[in-house]
Design a protein that fits this description.
single chain, mainly alpha, 91% helix, Exodeoxyribonuclease 7 large subunit, Exonuc_VII_lsu_C, hydrolase, EC 3.1.11.6
Length: 146
């Protein structure tokens, strides 16, 4: 629209008034364009920030799934498990050795050999005394019959 259109249309009685109407419409249009531009810039900033964040997440996830990284993590885990197993095995062997020592000591304490030896010695002593007593009685009985 031009100023002449407004004047001819009776919306503006004079060319100056028509210029004011056009000027006001231009200012309003400029304000609307600036507002739309601001909203568009904000929407673009939000969209770009959202896409950047999503890209970063996907990139991080892909890096975490990289075969070399996964292999390195699994090797680290394997080393930790080996150390734990070795430590557990050493402890188990140590406990088994200690238990064997305790059982050996108990067995030695319960060993019947010394008791058997003492009993055999006692039996020999008693047999000797019995033989002495029997000889003495036999001698006494012989003396009586003579």
């Amino acid at each position: 629209m031009t100023i002449a259109d407004f004047v001819a249309d009776l919306r503006a009685p004079t060319p100056s008034a028509a210029a004011e109407v056009v000027s006001r419409n231009q200012q309003e249009l400029l304000r609307q364009v600036q507002s739309a531009r601001q909203r568009l810039e904000m929407a673009m900033d939000y969209y770009l920030a959202n896409r950047t964040r999503r890209f970063t997440q996907i990139h991080h996830r892909l890096q975490q799934q990289h075969p070399q990284l996964r292999l390195a993590r699994q090797q680290t885990m394997l080393e930790r498990l080996k150390k734990r197993m070795s430590f557990a095995l050493e402890n188990q062997l140590k406990r088994a050795g200690q238990q064997q020592q305790r059982l050996t000591q108990r067995l030695n304490q319960q060993n019947p050999q010394p008791k058997i030896h003492r009993a055999q010695t006692r039996i020999q002593q008693l047999e000797y005394r019995l033989a002495e007593i029997l000889r003495a009685q036999l001698s006494a009985t012989r003396e009586r019959f003579r």
